[in-house]
Design goal:
Elements (H helix, E strand, L loop, with lengths): L5 H12 L7 H49 L2 H24 L4 H29 L17 H38 L3 H39 L3 H15 L4 E7 L5 E8 L7 E2 H5 L2 H5 L3 E3 L19 E8 L3 E9 L7 H31 L10 H13 L7 E8 L2 H8 L1 H18 L5 E6 L2 E7 L3 H16 L2 E5 L2 E4 L2 E8 L6 H17 L5 E2 L3 H11 L1
Parallel strand pairs: 12-13
Antiparallel strand pairs: 1-2, 1-6, 2-3, 4-5, 5-6, 7-9, 7-12, 8-9, 10-11
Helix pairs in contact: 1-6, 2-3, 2-4, 2-5, 4-5, 4-10, 6-7, 6-10, 7-10, 12-13, 13-14, 15-16
């Protein structure tokens, strides 16, 4: 009789241990009761999480609605409701974090919610309340966000999904415990014999599959870690195909990802001889997987009437169309095998988990990029805001070489308040946007233009000396005075701009000092009659430097 391998001896021992199962029936019931207690606690926790998630969503919606009402009506009661909703949102977030302390997926989703809410507070709520209280600017009814910001809603939806996933996991465990109790009750005295038979059958039938499950789990763990370090959509797509090559072994594959504008799908990663092509949105929307909203497998593309995918056309073998979607579709994965019926059922669940995780990774990255971009941009003109400008200028000055010059322009639209009073704020907004376009037309690739506040703008010109800075400023001034701004049907008016210039290191090497010198030059231009460019020279420069010091 041939000797058994070490692995087979272990499996035989597992079958032999089944003989002792009858003696362990009592312990099984004790274990099942213990599992019931754990499940009951889990269900209680899940119920609390669902209620807190609803409270968080309700408080978030209440914040925006009460803020809108307060802006439009100046009703103190609305402000009180806004403040109460803000407190309620913070309490709900804190409670969720406490309850879900050992649930990393829920904590990650909650962090996305908190980030989106904080950005909404900075971008919308704080400026609105500050303007009403007379601190800065003027906030008008047409600027009120009457619809809830999509990124906050999306973030809360992601949180609700993770809470739902936790509920589904508890249901699965609950069903398993119930089945175990039924089997233990019905097994009785016959458990010893049947356990032995089932153990031996299980070893023979599913041993390899269990090993495959372990291997799939390892691939999923490594894929999740890879997406954590991916810097862009291409990095995520490459990780997707690397994982799917190990799990499903397709002959060829491509990952298409919708660009941020959502007007075309870009092939970010491919496997095999078939090259991916840039697709219009219509082609991707016709993919069977996208239409169905889940994985669609054409088992044999050579059979008549087999569905054809417009995004990945094949005439033979097996084709799997898998949407990359988590709330909304952000791309697709297409896997192709030369032979029919080649996509194993055992791999499909793991493949779906990979694409779901990829969709979440891409969606979160784009959401954070959107929030960061909006936080650093002036909404009315599309230029950088003062915070971004100051941070960029500080960075440029600190990294400046000894012989490198950096110029700063401060610009102020002349008599802009009178323009607004005569023609209205919509016309004033048009003038601001038109002037922003002029600044853009005069900038190089590495220059920065910003709306610094009200009708005041700032321009950063790296590597530019005083004479060049003055020439650029004159170009801006000339184009501005020739620009016509429409103020009514068939009516237009012209505006002018005054500009002050300062250059590092000639005038100063620190941001605050450089900006004060440019501001002093700007006021000299305005005092001299406006529509002028002034740069400190000679005695004036020395006086300005002394004043700053």
């Amino acid at each position: 009789m041939p000797s058994l391998s070490a692995h087979n001896r272990v499996l035989v021992m597992v079958g032999g241990l089944g003989l002792a199962t009858a003696l362990s029936i009592g312990l099984a019931f004790v274990y099942i009761e213990g599992q019931d207690e754990v499940l009951n606690k889990g269900f209680d926790t899940d119920e609390v999480l669902q209620g807190l998630t609803f409270d968080l969503s309700d408080a978030s919606r209440g914040r925006e609605e009460s803020l809108v009402e307060y802006i439009l009506r100046r009703d103190p009661a609305a402000l009180a409701r806004y403040q109460a909703a803000t407190r309620a949102e913070a309490v709900a977030s804190r409670e969720i974090r406490n309850v879900a302390a050992d649930m990393p997926e829920i904590l990650v989703a909650l962090t996305v919610v908190d980030t989106a809410s904080d950005q909404w507070e900075q971008i919308v709520a704080e400026p609105a309340l500050a303007s009403i209280e007379g601190q800065v600017g003027t906030y008008h009814a047409e600027n009120v966000p009457f619809q809830r910001l999509e990124r906050v809603g999306l973030a809360i939806a992601l949180l609700a999904t993770e809470v739902g996933n936790n509920s589904a996991g508890l249901d699965v465990i609950d069903e398993s415990v119930s089945n175990a109790r039924t089997l233990a009750t019905q097994g009785g005295l016959a458990a010893t014999f049947f356990t032995l038979v089932i153990s031996l059958w299980f070893v023979g039938r599913y041993g390899r599959e269990l090993q495959a499950d372990i291997k799939r789990s390892d691939v999923l763990n490594r894929f999740t870690e890879a997406t954590t370090f991916a810097v862009d959509d291409r990095g995520v797509a490459s990780a997707v195909l690397a994982a799917l090559a190990l799990l499903a072994k397709p002959g060829s594959a491509v990952v298409h990802v919708l660009n941020p504008s959502k007007d075309r799908a870009v092939p970010e990663a491919t496997i095999g001889p078939i090259e991916g092509e840039v697709l219009p949105l219509k082609a991707l929307s016709g993919c069977p997987g996208v239409v169905r909203g889940s994985t669609y497998v054409t088992e044999d593309a050579a059979i008549a009437l087999s569905p054809q995918c417009p995004a990945y056309r094949v005439d033979h073998g097996t084709l799997a169309c898998i949407p990359i979607a988590h709330g909304e579709t952000v791309g697709t994965v297409h896997l192709h095998w030369d032979s029919a019926h080649a996509f194993p059922l055992s791999a499909r669940v793991a493949v779906t988990r990979i694409t779901d995780h990829a969709a979440l990774a891409i969606g979160n990255r784009r959401l954070l990029a959107l929030l960061e971009g909006q936080a650093g941009t002036d909404a009315r003109t599309g230029l950088a805001n003062s915070r971004t400008f100051d941070a960029t200028l500080d960075k440029k000055l600190s990294a400046r070489l000894d012989d490198e010059q950096i110029a700063v322009l401060l610009l102020d639209l002349d008599h802009f308040k009178d323009f607004n009073d005569r023609h209205g704020h919509p016309a004033g907004d048009d003038a601001l946007r038109a002037f922003a376009a002029i600044l853009g037309s005069c900038m190089r690739g590495n220059d920065i233009a910003a709306r610094y506040g009200g009708e005041e703008f700032a321009v950063l010109l790296p590597g530019v000396d005083t004479a060049t800075a003055v020439a650029i400023a004159e170009r801006i001034r000339t184009r501005t005075e020739t620009m016509a701004v429409a103020v009514g049907a068939g009516t237009s008016e012209r505006i002018t701009v005054s500009i002050g210039v300062a250059v590092a290191p000639k005038h100063a090497t620190e941001r605050a000092a450089l900006m004060r010198i440019a501001d002093a030059a700007l006021y000299k231009a305005k005092d001299a009659g406006r529509n002028q460019v002034v740069a400190p020279v000679g005695a004036d420069a020395k006086a300005d430097l002394a004043a700053v010091a």
